[in-house]
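Retro notes
What went well: the complex prediction finally ran end to end.
Inputs used:
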Amino acid sequence: MSTGLDPHRVVSGSQFGWQPEVVPFTTIPELFARRAAELGDAPMMRQKDLGIWRAYSWREVETIASEIGAGLVRLGFEPGEVVSVLANTRREWVWTDLGTLMAGGVCNGVYPTDSAAQLQYLCGDSACVYLFVENDEQLDKFLEVRDRLPRIRKVVVFDMEGLSNLDDPQVIGLDTLRELGRLELKERPDAIVGRRGARKPGDVAILVYTSGTTGKPKGAMISHANLCAVLSGLSTSLFEGIPAGGERVAFLPLCHIAERMIGGYVPIMRGEVVNFVENPETVFENVREIQPHVFFAVPRVWEKIYSQVMITLSEAGKVQQLAYKWAMGVGERVAQARAEGGEPQGTLKLQSRLANFLVLDNVRRMTGMSRVRMGLTGAAPISPALIRWYQSLGVPLREGWGMTETCAGGTVTPRTRIRPGSIGVPGPGIEMRIAEGTNEILLRGPNVILGYLNQPEKTAETIDRDGWLHTGDVGRVDDDGFFYITDRMKDIIITAGGKNITPSEWENELKFSPYVTDVVMIGDKRAFLTALVMIDQENVEKFAQDHDVPFTNYASLTRAKEVQDLIWREIESVNGKFARVEQVKKFRLIEQQLTAEDEELTPTMKLKRALVQKKYAELIEGMYRD
Amino acid sequence: MSGAPILRLANVESAYGPIKAIRGVSLEVAPGEIATVLGSNGAGKTTILKTISGIIDPRRGSVEFKGESITAMDPALVVQRGLSHVPEGREVFPLLSVHDNLLMGAYTRKDRDQVARDMETVFGYFPILRERAAQNAGLLSGGQQQMLAISRAIMAAPELILLDEPSLGLSPRLTKEIFEIIVRINRERGTSMLLVEQNANMALNAADYGYVIENGRIVMGDTCAVLREKDDIKEFYLGMKEQGTRGERRWKKKKTWR
């Protein structure tokens, strides 16, 4: 990079010919009503009942959502009031979301892994009046704190199993609510249709609480206009040249803005069928079953699929390993040709056919990626090597960047110009620039949220008077207008030697190892860099078993010398790609096996940097003592 | 644990045909101690014992007894080295007398005098067996058969006894008695024991060191005093639950094993 272009200039989506589509709707209920009328009896979503996929047509979902909305109206729900949903990603979540919006309400999500205390904070802060919970387990969280939530009028339970003996006037089942809704619609057929005008495009539609690695969670107020702005940009950027429709799998939490958009509203916009996974543990089986056309996942999932292939390969015979190596080499050259805007020609074309037939098709089918025409990673940084690997495999994986505060809109790599390492270019209607001095990425556009609920001072800190959102990400832009993220602003390490280090680049390289799930680099105001590493249990166990390393459980696995040596070898090979001051000199393994319920992890299973540093302070000090 | 372990399993994998029953089990029994393996039905407990005594040959890994490998060794030779197995469901010889059953336990021994003394000892532990010595073993009650099975194992003068669910099908009172005698045998004779049990409460009180196995993998290993205080053990093995606000609870907490 160099040349005369101003590194702090404004770059906008329109510079790439990306214009927002003119759409005939201004709110989500309007959009949904249109699609339901167009697509009618075609399937809209599927979910398994006792192991068998059950499909729901657009019309069916519209009826169900109307009943939920009308049921709320009958209970006394007013436009602008807040409903919260505490459930895993499943059909009832989307039904409730749509029903709430159709009744003119605001829908807020609570992570199913949140504790009772967190539930209390979120319901209190959002002034929630109706709470929808998944089952008895989630209901118990509410019952624990119900005394402190006087605003909540009724709790609706999706799955009443185990609750038939419950006698609590405040708790009803979803079926009961729908019954009330049917009654209401019978008496007043316009109960829901009449509310269509109750909310204006500029009104809040949904609340999304940011996971808040520091301080209390902040409720981002997202308007119908924000949502519609992102939706109207899809077909010219993210889905440029990709036919509408197809299958997709929803499994990330719907309270997260990424899945809320891509698993909730985008499929409505694009007429895609959403398949809900059975539970968070069956994601990979379900993906294989469905073979989706559109697949969005966080880097951790893409990493996991990659390491599964690597492990399978290590068990394969010599011939298979050679065939794989050759086929991936061909795949890489094909991807190279495509990145330059062409299609493979001549010998390469023939080789490519053979490689697909012998190897690549099988690998894609085995991982559930055989039909993917739009693969997307986001919500966390990813190693460029991983994107290249998927490209070689023939899975068109692209990187996008967005955040709650941008309603998941932001940048995406254009389909025909993939640049691993770059997050792409600004989407339609979006302007971006790098701030002078801090190099923070700033963004302006119709997708920027209204602000944080109840926290005007935080809003003012984040969105300046000219409408620029301060994203907290530090980065740069190249001469072609492609953006690159260096790191989160608050994560940048300044060593005792005064050197600025951006940890995520090194961390992402290490996370590429099949034996490493997550890592946090440490070294602020220290003489050298160290790292806390979380191992991948399955793969390290397999390593131990193959190399006769005795272990009893997770903790003893992390203590085994051979495992420590294994991770050190992985670290050294990553270190080789970095300058001396950027190399990690020591590391420790986290001995505790962490789950999504643990405070150390975000709901998307990322280690919380600040919390980990505090919690494992003793372990960290140990590295700097001797 | 102190001293070199009398029994050491390293990365043992055993399978029934294509089904792996245990996947990479490593555990140790210290000399003179009782170790226990807890786990639900089908977790792989019995397979561990069968692999140790040579009834099943492991796919991978090694079994060391008194510092020497007994991996995949013939069961008869394992017994001669001083390791006896009390199988699940007693497996006494029903048509032999109690006396002859006990002599079968001593089949591999040559020291007649010591055998006679051991016979006296087991009659001391279980007086009922002396009364029934001439009766066919098949006519004994379940508890008595369990006593006989343990006694038969002692008759081989082992240094380590593998006990597979001694409480199976016994009344609580009988279970308590059997466990008391197991501990007594351990204390008086210094015999090490590896005890596999579903009755976690009994096993954790009798044993010094415990392992928890799930789906063929060890998920936890610690002294029994520590294990008894773990939340997961309390909830899933000892049946102590925090009551929810509703006073009843159907859902299970997720196990974290820490």
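What we learned: The mean pLDDT of chain A is 92.
What to try next: split runs per interface for comparison.
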